[in-house]
Amino acid sequence: MSGGTGFPALSMALTNSFNPSGNSLRIRLNAALSASIDFRSTPIGLMTSPSDFQWLSDTAVVFDGLSSRAYFFDLNGKVIRILTLPHPFSSAALDPNRMRAYLAIYSSRYYYADDRFVPGSDSLIEETSLIDGRALGSIGTPVQYGHAKLQFLGNDVMLARDPKSGSLAVAWPVSPHVEIRGVNNRLHLDLPYSGNFTPPQPKVVQLAPLPMPPDVDYQRIVYGMDVDSAGRIYLLTASTLQTEPIWSSKYHPPHEVVEVMSASGETICRIPLPFFATAVAVARQGQLLLSDSARGNGAYRLTYKCLTVGKKRDDN
Question: Which terminal CB of the chain, N or C, has fewer other CB atoms within 10 Å?
């Protein structure tokens, strides 16, 4: 999720309020959370998994990963264009100056064959034209995790674009580091995020009877990310260990913090959250918007003040 240029940033890219049967989609404006835009145009019925929202001038672009499409809406909620993209994707970032989209394709192109998970691509991120939808190149290399299911879960990366420098930030959900790539898409800086705890090693668990594939019990570290106009990185991260597997009836989400990092890799501050969230967006300086899309609990507006400016990553 991202805010945009020329508009107040939006409350949440999408708060999972998409209702396929009701043929509606709602996006709220930060400037007035009580106001909303409802998209009820007929082509919306083709949308299956709206996940990322960004502004392109005065046009709202909604990325739909499973259907491999980008939907362009005017401010009245009318669909003015539908762009078919080359492959399914799980996250997207938009470069309005170059009319490019960056799509996290690796974890969305897995399939199950011969009793095993098979990657459909060696590419982590695909650069795509927003003019005609053509694939323009690939970016990045998947992390190797040694377990088939963790291989695609662990490479379900989150993307955010620095609106000032044009750099692309890439965060991994189970690996404690963030990559910053320059506008030429070459690796510019690697920020090893130290985190607040040491996650346990993943465990292989056979939940379903053979020949069904084994599952994997693992600790997710990063849940969401955004970058503000000053290049600061906001990582929504777990701050405690999970005590039970996610499929257990005893599972409770871990506590979380938002780690605010400078573009050089220093921790500016850590913001503890009083609730669980799965996505974060920068509204303005000193204010974040978060949502728990997995549970449909809507959006939260959080005002904060950094008290530990300039501290290194290992400091609290």
Answer: C
Characterize 256-294 residue by residue with b for buried, 16 or more Cβ atoms within 10 angstroms of its Cβ, and e for exposed. bbbbbbebebebbbbbebeebbbbbbbbeeeebbbbbbe
- Residue 226 DSSP SS3: strand
How many CB atoms neighbour CB 175 within 10 A? Answer: 17
Verify cis geometry, omega within 30 degrees of 0, for the bond prior to 202.
no
Judge whether 64 and 49 are in contact, CB under 8 Å: yes
**According to the model, what pLDDT value does residue 36 have?**
43
Euclidean distance between CA atoms 222 and 44, whole angstroms: 30
The tokens of 66 are what? 């499973």
Task: Specify the pairing of strand 69-73 against strand 111-113.
Answer: unpaired
pLDDT (tens digit, 9 = 90+) per residue, 267-302? 898 999 988 888 888 877 888 888 775 555 566 788
Residues 6+ apart with CB under 8 A from 113: none
Tokens found for residue 199: 């996650």
Q: With beta carbons less than 8 A apart as the criterion, state whether 306 and 268 touch.
A: yes
Side by side, the strands of the sheet bearing 256-261 are 222-227, 233-238, 256-261, 267-272
Residues of the chain with confidence (pLDDT) below 70: 1-48, 109-121, 185, 210-213, 293-299, 307-316
* Buried-state track 138-155, b at ≥16 Cβ within 10 A, e below 16: bbbebbebebbbbbbbbb
Helix, strand, coil shares of the chain, percent, nearest 5, are 5, 40, 55
Counts of helices then strands in the chain (DSSP H, E) = 1, 25
pLDDT at 7: 30
The pLDDT of residue 57 is: 80
**Taking a C-beta distance cutoff of 8 angstroms, is the pair 90, 108 a contact?**
yes
Environment class of 19 (CB within 10 Å of its CB; exposed 0-12, middle 13-18, buried 19+): exposed
